[in-house]
Amino acid sequence: MSEIKVPVGISNRHLHLSISDLAALFGKDHQLKPTKDLSQPGQFACEETVTLIGAKGVIPKVRILGPVRSASQVEISKTDSFVLGINPPVRDSGSISGTPGITIEGPAGRIELKEGVIIAQRHLHLHSDEAAQFGLKDQELITVKFEGARETTFGRVLVRVNPNYKLDLHVYTDEANAAGLANGDVGIVVKL
Amino acid sequence: MSEIKVPVGISNRHLHLSISDLAALFGKDHQLKPTKDLSQPGQFACEETVTLIGAKGVIPKVRILGPVRSASQVEISKTDSFVLGINPPVRDSGSISGTPGITIEGPAGRIELKEGVIIAQRHLHLHSDEAAQFGLKDQELITVKFEGARETTFGRVLVRVNPNYKLDLHVYTDEANAAGLANGDVGIVVKL
Question: pTM value?
Answer without folding.
Answer: 0.89
